[in-house]
Structure formats: structure tokens, C-alpha cells
Write a structure and sequence with these properties.
Strand order of the largest sheet: 1-2
Biased composition (Low complexity): 284-310
Region (Disordered): 1-73, 149-191, 282-437, 450-628
DNA-binding region: 73-141
Distance between the termini: 42 Å
Number of helices: 32
Biased composition (Polar residues): 484-493
Largest sheet: 2 strands, parallel
Strand content: under 5%
Structural class: mainly alpha
Protein name: HMG box transcription factor BBX
Radius of gyration: 25 Å
Length: 703
DNA sequence: AAGAATGAAAC
DNA sequence: GTTTCATTCTT
């Protein structure tokens, strides 16, 4: 890892250490609550994503920024950001000395020259992502509301809280409500909801537990699931998997392998939930532990859907001006994060479920604690079904040692360095492995998880191999599971998120969650720098003349690079089939926006249409970067042609994933659930009902 | 904490 | 039209 892991961390720590109230928020929010224990800020944030909606309203303001912040979900990434995330590591590899800014510039250049078709893939993904996000968070506003004028602070906290908890059937409503809340926020302490995390002690926890329990009841029945703990162990699995577990292993495999059509998926999901409700279902073996939690009482109504809650704003990380100071206390150490308590398991489970329901996938990380728990479960069975060989690198459960590069097999022989980096994932995996190796039951559990993962991965691969081609979009839709899952499961909390995308993000290790997330993300084609170079070259040449060189350049020169296309996490690098020519149209360049284009005086349009900066303006800033000369460009570009790379892998990327459920589908489900949740809460399906459903579930599985 | 890029949404 | 913020991570 480059140091990068830390990138975000620093801020985090600061904040955290400073104090992030997040926990508070977490506490009050069921979902958050669960996470809170485990994770540090980051996680929370992620969690928040799920929640978000009201965010703005609520609290943004003053004091409780934290509150707000926590809740606030992060905006979904746009196509370019996805691209950056996916390729930044490559750029960095190529130009180690280049700093991020420089890398960003290069990425912008790449983006500019990227073939429209390829670009479209990212665009589609971004859209899908956004759509899902919005479904999950209906009232989400990109911009936190500026602060609203506060009215009277006095709103009743209770109300606010309740509202929060209550389902928002109407987002709009909530938002309005939320807005009001800010006031309340101002006086957080008072608020029930707002209570300081720090202060919150056992009581809060109890409350949370109660809520969770409720939630759990609603969502998953205590019984089978109850095993929340058990489940939790499995956390690695997605909710879907959990559901699936009900079925025999083979069936599970089915889930893994076959993509369900969305509608089906939805149904399954729904039914599955219902099924879960009933204890009677032949589900898994359950353990009963859940009861504890469940017992807690709280009114169901309240608990119901907190997830929706909106959120507020804050971003924490970097920019936000807001400040971190607001936090009250640092008490909570950032580090503490992980959750140890058993409860966490439960939480995780619930969280997972809800997440799935919501369709919230937060970003990448979610906590998973599964690993910790020892409960061994039975998942082992799962393995057999797998048809694929496990090339998957991730963590192959069984063999800790091996890290094969998946990619390798696929294609690239040489990728070594890059692979390694990419291996990062493996790295993650590695850690897991070690754990596994050490612990018995735990090990099993992990294995099972891993198996699942690997299976999935294999499946995916297989698919991809088959070819989908590039493809696209929808089909490739993310699995909800993955999203939800990932959140839930991820064991490593913080880092993942922020940290370097490369490694961690990619990392699959732990959970599927990540894996899933990754898959989706990975499904996006990753292009070799060479490709871009070429393009740029072409472009450059064309334009070249203009004065100096614009920022385009990729630098490179490294021959090595050429040979190895990048592969990150398994994903292959593809070379888009691009034609360099296209480039012409696009204005290339990275001109920063800061200077409004309109205001940019130094850019002149050249004959070919490009904008060329005035000489002075762009500087080569980094040592690395040299201004390119044609030569440079040429060098780079040259060699690369790897036909194969392109096609093959790419495919997998987008297309490869089985689309278990589309995000949209999940979102839908979530929405429905929300709507009805209250009802359900009140009345649990009768056994008979459940039974009726069972067949459905089965059938789904079969399919 | 700033900043590099693009883009989507909100002012 | 302009501003925010999403990601990453070095400086």
C-alpha cells in the first residue's frame, strides 16, 4: 500500500479523535447504531449513506453537525469519479512520483480521450448507481441544505425522533420534517435522538437493542434468523444469502450462479423476508439467540424504519468546512470502532437485511464483523456446488496460502507489479486467511464465506468468459446483495472506504460485500495506460503543435508497463477499442474548472478545435511530468496493442456479474417494504401465510 | 486542508 | 450560471 491507505484516515482520525459525534447518531438510528459500535467514523458514514434522507433537514446546522453528517449519505459518484477510482491506481503506478493532483490530471486526460462507448459504460454505471441511491434515499439532496433558518429550536425532540424512525412514506414529508429538526439539533443533548453518543451509555444501547430487536422481528424473524448471531457470523453473506441458506446448499449455489430476473429476485427477496419471519420455516437451524434482543420492547412503530432517515450533511472528510469541531467529544476514539459486542452481530444482521431492503449499499464498506464471531456455521456445504474452479484470487477459503491471481489466469501473464498491487486485495485476503487459519470455528465460518465469495467470483468469471461483452448496463446491475452486503459485512471498516481505492476497495477479502461492491465496480473496464497513451498520442499529434504541451501526458515511459496491462483486482485491463481519432472532438484537457471556462482567457482555440493553454499556464509541475513531447507520447503509445486484453476482460466486467438483483429492484422492494412495514410490524404473517410463501421461495431458488 | 479533475444537482 | 460535493491522496 502506498501510504495511501491513510489518505483519508488522517482526516478521519482527526475528526474522530476530535470527536465525532457520529456515534450518537448511530445510536439513535438503528442502523447507525449497529454500525456504530463497530466502526469508526468511516463506517458510520457509510452507514449513513443508507440513511440519509433527511439529512439535510435535520441537523445540519449548528451544533450537531455531526449528527447531520453522520446521517448524510454521500453523493453517488459520477462517471468520471468512477473512472478515476478505477484507474487512479494505474496512473499512480505508472507515475509513482506524481502526486494525486497530477494523477487526476492524467485521469482527466484519459477520460477525455476515452472512447465514448467505453465512457458510456461508466456513465451508465454511474446512473444506475445514482438511481439506486435515490431510490434508497428518496429525499436525498445533493447539497446539504444550506442551513435553514432556524425556526424555533424547540421542536419537540420526541417528535422529531419519531419521525425519523417512522417510515417516511413520503420522502418529501420527511424532508420537511427534517428541516425542522435542525433546531432540535441545536440542542442535541436534549434530544432523545440526539443524545450524545458519548453520554449514551447502556441505556442507549438498550434502546437501540430494543429497536433492533423490533426491526429484526419485523424483518427477519427472530427465529430462524435469530440466529442473528449465527447469521451474524455469516454476515459475510448477504441477506440474500441468508435467505438462501434456508434452502439446501445446492440451492444456494443456484443463487450464486444464476442471475435471477429482477422481478423474481424481488419476489424472492420479499418472500424470503417473510419466510424469515416465521420461525417455523424450515430454515436453517437456527439458534435461538435472537430472542434476547428481540425481547426488548419498543414500540414497533417507532422502530420501523429508521433507515430512511435522511441525513444530513456532512461529509466529513475533507472538505467540509463545517468543521469538525463540533463534535463534542472525542471520547469515542476512533479506533475503538470495531464492534465486539455480540449485539453487533445482531445489528449486522439486521443491518444487512435492511440494507438490502433499502437497497442501500453504502459505499463500500460496511462492517462486517462476521469474522469475529466464532459460531461456526454450517455453511461449509456450500462449496460443493461450485462448479467453477476457483481461480478466484480473493480469498480462497480453503487455501489460505494461495493467492493466485485470478487475473493471471485470465490473461495477463505478466502483470506482475501491478498485479501485486492489485493484489492488495489479496492482501486483505491474506489477512483474513491468517485469521482463519488460526481459528477453528471461525475459520470455518470464514471459509464458508470465502467459499461463497469465491464461488461467486468464479461464477462471475465464467460468465464473463462466456462473454457478455461489454455491456452493459443494466444487466450488469449490481447486486443488491453485494451492496447491502458489503456494507454489512465488511470487516474492515474504515480503511476500506477511504483508503486507497485500489487495494482496499478492491479487496475482497472479507466479505463478499466488498467483493460484491468490487465486482460491480470492477465490472467496469479498466484500461491500460497504454491505450490512453496511444490515444493521446494521436491526439497530441494532431494537435500537437500548439504551443506547448498541454497537460496531457501520460508519462510513461516505462516499458514495463506496456507489457503489463493492468489488472487490478482481477479485473482485466482492457483496452478500449478506441480509436484515437475521436479524440479530436473532445476538448481535451484538463483545464480546471476553477477558472470558469468562460473566464478562462488563456485558452485559445486552435485550429483543430482544441483549447490550448497559454504557455505560461500549464506547468509541468511535477518532476515526473515532463512536458510531453511528441516523442514521449510516441513512446508510450507505441507498443501497446493487446487485442486480447480488451475483449476478454472487459466483458466480464460489466456483463459478467450475474445480476442477482438490480439495485433498482432492491430499491423498489425497499420502498415497498417501507410502505408496508408498519403494517407488517403490527401483524406478523401467520404461519399459514408463511407456508404459502415457502413454495415461492423454493421456486425462486430453483430458478 | 488544499487541491486536481468531471459531472450532477442545487441554488 | 455558479457553487457543492463526490473520490483519492500527496503536499
Amino acid at each position: 500500500m502506498k501510504g495511501g491507505g491513510g489518505g483519508k484516515e488522517p482526516p478521519e482520525e482527526g475528526e474522530v479523535s476530535g470527536k465525532r459525534p457520529k456515534r450518537k447518531c448511530l445510536q439513535w438510528h438503528p442502523l447507525l447504531a449497529k454500525k456504530a459500535p463497530d466502526f469508526s467514523e468511516e463506517e458510520e458514514e457509510e452507514d449513513e449513506e443508507e440513511l440519509e434522507k433527511e439529512g439535510e433537514c435535520a441537523g445540519m446546522e449548528d451544533d450537531s453537525e455531526e449528527y447531520s453528517s453522520e446521517q448524510r449519505a454521500r453523493r453517488p459518484m459520477n462517471a468520471f469519479l468512477l473512472f478515476c477510482k478505477r484507474h487512479r491506481s494505474l496512473v499512480r503506478q505508472e507515475h509513482p512520483r506524481l502526486d494525486n493532483r497530477g494523477a487526476t490530471k492524467i485521469l482527466a486526460d484519459w477520460w477525455a480521450v476515452l472512447d465514448p462507448k467505453e465512457k458510456q459504460k461508466y456513465t451508465d454505471m454511474a446512473k444506475e448507481y445514482k438511481d439506486a441511491f435515490m431510490k434508497a434515499n428518496p429525499g436525498y439532496k445533493w447539497c446539504p441544505a444550506t442551513n435553514k433558518p432556524v425556526k424555533s429550536p424547540s421542536h419537540s425532540v420526541n417528535n422529531a425522533r419519531k419521525k425519523v424512525w417512522s417510515l417516511p412514506s413520503n420522502p418529501s414529508k420527511e424532508s420537511s420534517v427534517a428541516k425542522k429538526q435542525p433546531k432540535t439539533d441545536s440542542t442535541p443533548q436534549l434530544n432523545f435522538a440526539m443524545a450524545d453518543p458519548n453520554k449514551m451509555g447502556g441505556l442507549s444501547m438498550l434502546l437501540l437493542a430494543g429497536e433492533h430487536a423490533l426491526t429484526a422481528r419485523e424483518i427477519s424473524s427472530s427465529s430462524s434468523q435469530t440466529g442473528c448471531t449465527d447469521v451474524a457470523k455469516h454476515t459475510g453473506k448477504s441477506a440474500l444469502f441468508q435467505l438462501a441458506e434456508v434452502r439446501p446448499p445446492e440451492d444456494l449455489s443456484i443463487f450464486n450462479n444464476k442471475p435471477l430476473n429482477p422481478s423474481l429476485a424481488v419476489r424472492c427477496l420479499r418472500y424470503g423476508w417473510l419466510a424469515v419471519y416465521t420461525p417455523e420455516l424450515p430454515v436453517t437451524t437456527s439458534s435461538s439467540s435472537s430472542s434476547n434482543t428481540g425481547s426488548t420492547s419498543s414500540s414497533p412503530t417507532d422502530t420501523t424504519l429508521s433507515d430512511l432517515s435522511p441525513c444530513k450533511t456532512l461529509k466529513k472528510k475533507k472538505k467540509k468546512k463545517e468543521n469538525k469541531d463540533s463534535d463534542e467529544n472525542p471520547t469515542s476514539p476512533k479506533k475503538a470502532k470495531k464492534r465486539h459486542s455480540p449485539e453487533s452481530d445482531l445489528d449486522s444482521v439486521m443491518f444487512t437485511i435492511e440494507a438490502v431492503a433499502k437497497g442501500a449499499w453504502g459505499s463500500e464498506e460496511t462492517p462486517k464483523k462476521k469474522a469475529h464471531l466464532s459460531g461456526s456455521e454450517s455453511n461449509d456445504d456450500v462449496e460443493p456446488p461450485v462448479g467453477v474452479e476457483d481461480t478466484t484470487p480473493h480469498c480462497s477459503p480453503p487455501h489460505p496460502t494461495e493467492l493466485e491471481e485470478k487475473d493471471t489466469d485470465t490473461k495477463q501473464p505478466q502483470t506482475r507489479q501491478e498485479d501485486r498491487e492489485q493484489e492488495v486485495k489479496p492482501e486483505t485476503c491474506g489477512s483474513r486467511k491468517s485469521e482463519r487459519s488460526c481459528k477453528g470455528a471461525l475459520y470455518k465460518t470464514l471459509v464458508s464465506e470465502g467459499m461463497l465469495t469465491s464461488l461467486r467470483a468464479n461464477v462471475d468469471r465464467g460468465k464473463r468468459g462466456s462473454i457478455r461483452g461489454s455491456l452493459s448496463d443494466h444487466e450488469g446491475s449490481w447486486n443488491d446483495e453485494s451492496w447491502g452486503f458489503s456494507q454489512a459485512a465488511t470487516s474492515n471498516p474504515k480503511k476500506l472506504k477511504k483508503s486507497k481505492s485500489k487495494e482496499e476497495t478492491t479487496t475482497p477479502g472479507l466479505g463478499k460485500l466488498e467483493e460484491e461492491f468490487e465486482k460491480k465496480f470492477n465490472s467496469l473496464p479498466q484500461y491500460s495506460p497504454l491505450t490512453f497513451d496511444k490515444k493521446s498520442v494521436a491526439v497530441t499529434k494532431k494537435k500537437k503543435n500548439s504551443t506547448s504541451s498541454p497537460p496531457e501526458p501520460p508519462k510513461p515511459c516505462k516499458g514495463e508497463f506496456t507489457s503489463s496491462p493492468v489488472v487490478k483486482s482481477g479485473s482485466p485491463c482492457v483496452s478500449p477499442s478506441p480509436e484515437p481519432q475521436k479524440v479530436l472532438d473532445t476538448p481535451v484537457g484538463s483545464q480546471k474548472r476553477k477558472a470558469r471556462k468562460s473566464k478562462i482567457t488563456h485558452l485559445v482555440r486552435t485550429a483543430d478545435g482544441r483549447l490550448s493553454p497559454a504557455e505560461g499556464e500549464l506547468k509541468p509541475q511535477f518532476p515526473d511530468e515532463k512536458p510531453f513531447t511528441q516523442e514521449t507520447l510516441c513512446n508510450r503509445g507505441v507498443c501497446y496493442n493487446d487485442p486480447r486484453s480488451a475483449e476478454v476482460d472487459v466483458t466480464d466486467a460489466s456483463g459478467g456479474l450475474p445480476a442477482f438483483f438490480s439495485l433498482a429492484a432492491l430499491a423498489e422492494v425497499a420502498a415497498m417494504e417501507n410502505v408496508h412495514r408498519a403494517q407488517r410490524a403490527v401483524s406478523i404473517p401467520s404461519e399459514g401465510q408463511v407456508k404459502d410463501m415457502a413454495p415461492v421461495l423454493i421456486s425462486c431458488a430453483d430458478q
